[in-house]
């Protein structure tokens, strides 16, 4: 008898389809988190945390199903494209692509089998919504200074700009890292408890 | 022409051979039926022919398959795709696009035909497969039968010489099966070679030329259709085959009232119930009574309100009007939820835990371990206690869902299409299970299209039509004919 | 956020019909304009022209709705920063401004989804030389999206029947397990079935895929691009004009 194995380093159609399906799952979870908080002016800054909290397991399972270079980049590019086409901040799309590449390289360093590196890569990727909030800092002038006419109160700009710069950025990043970590670890537990036992991983 | 030469195959991770030394020749224009029990290797054989083995599935292989003179193993998948078209069992998971037009075009666009050719083929296909009314629609808004029509059209547009149909009727109602029958006939008239695997056999009687029977991966019978469809009933039952002839006389269950000499106590009383969407109720003015131990079939076309009725009975829908009483007490939504339990067609959605035993205890505090063991033993699941539910077979998953229902002390059990795609033996096992549940004093409802199954297990049939209860009768010699017309 | 409920049945038809690529470009332009613009008046002009375009594409009602939303956000922004400018309400104001700035491009995005068929979007991607490693997952994503909704409904029913109600806040871990496990199991299985169905219909063909759907630039497209460029320039120079 002849043994047939498909050890293919490149992405096969099956890998692409699997990636597509998990992109859909990822996006749904992302929208669940974002949809709850993003349109709310008070809570909008918590949105990245909610997204990070929900998406970890989907990310971990994607890596476990397709342990190759590529799927995470595709995840970033595809979601970035959709974000762009639907008119979200374009910096978010760019962040998705760049962090996708970074996350791919990190997980790839452990050949996608090293759980710790996979968790780190998941956390890194979950920083992506920061892309849209970075506007607040990079583009500070346009953001804080223009009000109706020339009646901008300088004090307003100063307090807002200063405080925001001082603590909001690090606070947001730190909170995303914490929630992302919780989520990725939860993903790892689910993976061990359920999906590996059920023979669902590659 | 398809030639299969000395094929043996074992999937990666499988303990035994899935196909053993299979030899088969299919002539051009022939229509062949592959029959046999679940797991006999029918589907594996189809995969050998359309190249998924060895190009997609891994395993060990011996022998060769030739399609129109070419060795399948040496061809690329997209070359095979031009000659062989495959329609799969589950219409829900075989489409690649979200709209019908793109789906029909999918195959021919992959083949990279120039735009004029695409146009010609598209219009031709739409005309010849009769899908004009489905164009420009969202595939998710179509019924199972309509989805299958689109799947067919997509393959048809590629104009292959050989069609492989993998249990095409598994998810269809009687109406859609008749349409499928016509479609296969039309292909045959075009001189196409057709290979079908199927459990539901009667509708193929006048279509197929030859029947191959497989058992445990071997070919163990090659009959001309004229011999096969007249096999005596005992022989076909012994070989695990489903109904061969729609005119055959089937034994049926004595209804409970006949059994208990007219003594019948009404336990469940449904009065004038309407449910569905507020402005637009899906079911209207449903009234009937049911007593303990009854097994009641719910039949009707797609969209007639069968599943809405079933869901309403177990508290998944709000009642807009009317009342449901159980042992004289009116049931509120939550109580219906506590009493009713539905075993889905897709049982996977009902299983959450990481082992069979944990599944039984899931979400229930203080459940008696001994009780779990007893019920698992009763349902033949005691050997799998530590197994992950996803690794069980379809029948075992179904029994596990039933075990959960029994542990929750449910009194109204509802089965949604429990026998779609089952062979005779598995169907009989489901019948035994359901009878056992009925004897324990539960009321059983079964949403089904399966005539043979209904004859075997139901005492009574509720016929739904356009959201209303059209008929309600016990199955007797007199009502048989009505039932045959309904389900065949 | 139901922006991915792509419609395939009936597309609104206005008196202009744009190539999806034009709309991509317009979205890009409006993003740049918003990014750079430093005058609220130029932002108004941008939003007004987007709303006008939407109305021309046949989604007048939607355009009015978005206009009203935008107006409310601007009003809130002004009110809060005028009268509560030095309290914690500043953060609310920034939040509002932040959302307000998504609205123009978001309106265009929604207009794209509502007026262009999925197949046209896919064709434009392949015309823009997006490789298959992206278009295949993207198609699958759009197609699988509604399936997740179906999964969710079925899981909810199953949970209700087993008395696993109580919601997310009472039992977060259990709720997550109940949703994630069956959803991802079904995702894994569907991936397999879907790949088979695609492979046996020749998706691996290395030849460049052809399409029946045609997209091409028309006069309306060029006009729109010119207008968009003009508005963008206006936004960039906005500060100096006013």
From TrEMBL, chain A:
Signal peptide: none annotated. It comes from the Bacteria. The keyword GTP-binding does not apply. InterPro entries: CHP02185_IM (IPR011733). Keywords: Membrane, Transmembrane, Transmembrane helix. The chain crosses the membrane at residues 16-38, 45-66, 72-103, 115-138, 167-191. This is Energy-coupling factor transport system substrate-specific component. It comes from Kineothrix alysoides.
UniProtKB/TrEMBL annotation, chain B:
One of its GO terms (molecular function) is ATP binding. Residues 2-241, 268-488 form the ABC transporter domain. Pfam families: ABC_tran. The keyword Membrane applies. Keywords: ATP-binding, Cell membrane, Membrane, Nucleotide-binding, Repeat, Translocase, Transport. SMART domains: AAA. It comes from the Bacteria. InterPro entries: AAA+_ATPase, ABC_transporter-like_ATP-bd, ABC_transporter-like_CS, ABC_transpr_CbiO/EcfA_su, ECF_ABC_transporter_ATP-bd, P-loop_NTPase. GO terms for cellular component: ATP-binding cassette (ABC) transporter complex. The keyword Repeat applies. It is found in: Cell membrane. It is a peripheral membrane protein. PANTHER family: ABC TRANSPORTER ATP-BINDING COMPONENT, HEAVY METAL TRANSPORTER. Probably part of an ABC transporter complex. Responsible for energy coupling to the transport system. Belongs to the ABC transporter superfamily. This is Energy-coupling factor transport system ATP-binding protein.
TrEMBL record, chain C:
The keyword Transmembrane applies. The keyword Nucleotide-binding does not apply. It is found in: Membrane. Coiled coil: none annotated. InterPro entries: ABC/ECF_trnsptr_transmembrane, ECF_transporter_component. Pfam families: CbiQ. Keywords: Cell membrane, Membrane, Transmembrane, Transmembrane helix. GO terms for cellular component: plasma membrane. It is a multi-pass membrane protein. The chain crosses the membrane at residues 21-41, 47-76. It comes from the Bacteria. This is Energy-coupling factor transport system permease protein. It comes from Kineothrix alysoides.
């Amino acid at each position: 008898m002849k043994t047939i194995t498909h050890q293919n380093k490149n992405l096969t159609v099956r890998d692409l389809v699997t990636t597509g399906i998990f992109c859909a799952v990822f996006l749904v979870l992302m929208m669940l988190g974002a949809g709850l908080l993003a349109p709310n002016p008070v809570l909008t800054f918590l949105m990245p945390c909610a997204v990070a909290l929900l998406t970890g397991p989907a990310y971990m399972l994607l890596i476990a199903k397709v342990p190759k270079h590529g799927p995470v980049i595709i995840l970033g590019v595809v979601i970035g494209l959709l974000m762009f086409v639907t008119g979200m901040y374009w910096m978010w799309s760019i962040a998705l692509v760049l962090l996708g590449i970074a996350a791919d390289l990190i997980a790839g360093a452990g050949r996608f089998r090293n759980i710790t590196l996979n968790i780190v890569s998941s956390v890194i990727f979950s920083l992506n919504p920061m892309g849209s909030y970075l506007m607040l800092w990079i583009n500070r002038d346009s953001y804080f200074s223009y009000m109706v006419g020339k009646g901008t109160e300088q004090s307003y700009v100063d307090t807002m700009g200063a405080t925001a710069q001082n603590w909001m950025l690090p606070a947001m990043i730190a909170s995303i890292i914490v929630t992302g970590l919780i989520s990725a670890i939860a993903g790892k537990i689910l993976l061990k408890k359920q999906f590996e036992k059920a023979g669902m991983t590659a | 022409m398809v030639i299969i030469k000395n094929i043996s195959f074992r999937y990666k991770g499988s303990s035994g051979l899935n196909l053993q030394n299979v030899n088969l020749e299919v002539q051009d224009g022939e229509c062949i039926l592959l029959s046999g029990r679940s797991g006999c290797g029918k589907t594996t054989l189809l995969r050998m022919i359309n190249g998924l083995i060895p190009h997609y599935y891994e395993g060990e292989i011996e022998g060769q398959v030739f399609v129109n003179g070419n060795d399948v193993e040496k061809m690329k998948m997209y070359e095979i795709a031009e000659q062989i078209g495959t329609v799969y069992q589950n219409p829900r998971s075989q489409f690649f696009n979200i709209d019908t037009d793109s789906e029909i075009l999918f195959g021919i666009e992959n083949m990279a035909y120039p735009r004029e050719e695409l146009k010609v083929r598209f219009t031709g296909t739409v005309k010849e497969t009769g899908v004009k009314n489905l164009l420009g629609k969202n595939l998710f808004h179509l019924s199972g039968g309509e989805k299958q029509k689109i799947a067919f059209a997509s393959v048809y547009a590629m104009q292959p010489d050989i069609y492989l149909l993998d249990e095409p009727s598994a998810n269809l109602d009687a109406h859609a099966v008749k349409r499928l029958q016509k479609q296969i006939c039309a292909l045959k008239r075009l001189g196409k070679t057709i290979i079908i695997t199927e459990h539901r056999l009667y509708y193929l009687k006048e279509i197929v030329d030859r029947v191959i029977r497989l058992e445990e991966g071997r070919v163990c019978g090659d009959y001309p259709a004229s011999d096969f469809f007249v096999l005596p009933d005992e022989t076909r039952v012994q070989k695990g085959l489903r109904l061969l002839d729609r005119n055959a006389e089937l034994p049926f269950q004595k209804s409970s009232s006949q059994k208990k000499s007219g003594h019948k106590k009404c336990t469940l009383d449904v009065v004038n119930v309407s449910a569905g969407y507020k402005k637009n109720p899906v079911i209207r003015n449903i009234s009937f009574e049911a007593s303990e131990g009854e097994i009641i079939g719910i039949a009707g076309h797609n969209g007639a309100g069968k599943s809405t009725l079933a869901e309403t009975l177990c508290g998944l829908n709000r009642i807009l009007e009317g009342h449901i009483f159980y042992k004289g007490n009116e049931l509120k939504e939550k109580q219906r939820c506590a009493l009713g339990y539905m075993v889905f067609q897709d049982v996977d959605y009902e299983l959450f835990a990481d082992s069979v035993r944990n599944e039984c205890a899931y979400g229930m505090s203080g459940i008696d371990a001994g009780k779990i063991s007893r019920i698992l033993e009763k349902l033949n699941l005691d050997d799998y206690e530590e197994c992950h539910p996803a690794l069980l077979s379809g029948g075992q998953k179904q029994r596990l869902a039933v075990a959960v229902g029994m542990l929750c002390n449910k009194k109204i059990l509802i089965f949604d299409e429990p026998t779609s795609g089952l062979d005779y033996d598995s169907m009989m096992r489901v019948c035994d299970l359901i009878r056992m549940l009925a004897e324990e004093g539960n009321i059983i409802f079964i949403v089904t299209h399966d005539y043979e199954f209904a004859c075997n297990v139901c005492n009574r049939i509720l016929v739904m039509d356009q959201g209303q209860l059209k008929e309600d009768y016990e199955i007797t010699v007199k009502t048989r004919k009505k039932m045959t017309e309904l389900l065949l | 956020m139901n922006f991915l409920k792509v419609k395939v049945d009936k597309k609104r038809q206005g008196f202009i019909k744009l190539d999806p690529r034009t709309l991509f470009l317009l979205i890009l332009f409006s993003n740049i304009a918003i990014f750079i613009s430093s005058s609220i008046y130029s932002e108004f002009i941008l939003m007004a022209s987007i709303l006008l375009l939407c109305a021309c594409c046949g989604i007048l009602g939607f355009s009015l709705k978005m206009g009203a939303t935008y107006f409310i956000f601007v009003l809130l922004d002004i009110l809060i920063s005028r009268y509560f400018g030095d309290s914690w309400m500043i953060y609310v104001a920034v939040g509002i401004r932040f959302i307000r700035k998504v609205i123009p491009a978001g309106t265009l995005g929604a207009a794209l989804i509502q007026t262009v068929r999925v197949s046209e979007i896919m064709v434009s991607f392949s015309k823009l030389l997006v490789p298959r490693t992206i278009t295949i997952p993207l198609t699958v994503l759009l197609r699988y999206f509604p399936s997740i909704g179906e999964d969710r409904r079925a899981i909810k029913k199953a949970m209700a029947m087993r008395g696993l109600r109580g919601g997310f806040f009472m039992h977060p871990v259990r709720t997550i397990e109940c949703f994630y496990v069956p959803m991802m199991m079904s995702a894994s299985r569907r991936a397999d079935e879907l790949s088979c169905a695609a492979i046996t219909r020749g998706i691996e063909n290395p030849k460049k895929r052809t399409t029946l759907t045609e997209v091409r630039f028309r006069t309306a497209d060029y006009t729109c691009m010119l207008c968009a460029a003009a508005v963008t320039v206006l936004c960039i120079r906005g500060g100096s004009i006013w």
